[in-house]
Design goal:
Order of helices and strands: EHEEEHHHEEHEEH
Strand order of the largest sheet: 1-2-3-4
Number of helices: 6
Strand content: 5-15%
Shape: globular
Radius of gyration: 21 Å
Distance between the termini: 60 Å
Helix content: 25-40%
């Protein structure tokens, strides 16, 4: 008999694109449902290091407690060095039930031993902790610069979700507006690109929403970009009034 009947993919912490976290009071019920229906939850925990609060949110993986009488190993936590290491190393790790780890070990995966050596040295020396700490502060500063600019430039009809971590701002325009039209203007005039919300929806929802990344560029570039995007949004607000 197979231990699982199905697989569920989640980004419970600093969700891409919305930046939200699964509420604490909902985490244990989600695990209970997975146990009841023999589901394996794959948590994409690649943004967890980039929290802007005093402490990071508790991972869904931690609610799948091994001492529970109905424990069956229902949650996998997937991490990635590509989000935290300067080399953008295509290497990650899993925290998973033993049966999942055994199954993966038999798939014949191969690794880049040079990258493994560099990362191993960074972990052993404590340099990795420093990289994460500096990266978290930098990304938080970049987020604040962009958020401050949008907050000053955009009218009250536009809702901006302040992220508590992660890489993205989620901006919701009035429902009658098209984020694609705003994107088209931004790209035509300034070669600025962002993701329209319906790209993240199987049903084509969130056509009025924008996902904007703040993780790569310096604060001054992000401020300038936010002003140009805001100008395009204001222009389309006036056109649709």
């Amino acid at each position: 008999d197979r231990p699982y009947r199905g697989l569920v993919y989640l980004i419970p912490t600093f969700h891409n694109p919305t930046g939200r976290c699964l509420a604490d009071e909902r985490c244990k019920p989600v695990v209970d449902i997975a146990r009841k229906h023999k589901l394996l939850i794959i948590c994409d925990d690649v943004y967890n290091f980039y929290y802007f609060t005093e402490k990071p949110p508790k991972r869904l993986y931690s609610y799948d407690t091994r001492t529970d009488p109905d424990y069956m190993g229902s949650v996998v936590s997937n991490g990635s060095f590509s989000k935290v290491f300067p080399l953008r190393a295509r290497l990650g790790w899993l925290e998973a039930p033993s049966q999942v780890l055994k199954a993966i070990a038999n798939t014949g995966c191969r690794f880049n031993h040079v990258v493994l050596g560099i990362l191993g040295t960074a972990l052993q020396s404590g340099g990795f902790d420093e990289i994460i700490s500096e990266g978290r502060l930098a990304v938080k500063s970049q987020m604040e610069a962009m958020l401050e600019t949008f907050s000053a430039e955009l009218p009250k009809e536009v809702h901006i979700a302040k992220p508590l971590g992660g890489f993205f701002l989620w901006i919701c325009l009035p429902e009658y507006m098209s984020a694609q039209a705003v994107l088209d203007e931004c790209y035509k005039k300034n070669k600025i690109n962002f993701q329209v919300g319906d790209c993240s929806s199987l049903d084509g929802n969130f056509k009025n929403c924008c996902r904007i990344s703040y993780s790569f560029y310096e604060a001054d570039v992000l401020k300038s970009t936010a002003k140009k995007i805001s100008a395009a949004i204001r222009n389309h607000l006036q056109c649709t009034e």
